[in-house]
């Protein structure tokens, strides 16, 4: 069985690394996902991403090209996934 793919958009600024993005990355790694880690490295990139996708926070996680949402949404998604195995 091939590893499922996740795309993670998270904020990593020179003076701040979003702890929710770090936690989402760790959760995906622990769950065995192949991760495309997309770093938003400036405030402008973060704000442009949020405006383009109509979201108010980062990180944002996609699994198999489906929007899961933020870190809390990912936690619920992974818990439901584990419950159905």
Automatic annotation (TrEMBL):
InterPro entries: Glutaredoxin, Thioredoxin-like_sf. It comes from the Bacteria. Signal peptide: none annotated. It comes from Sphingomonas hankyongi. Residues 17-68 form the Glutaredoxin domain. This is Glutaredoxin.
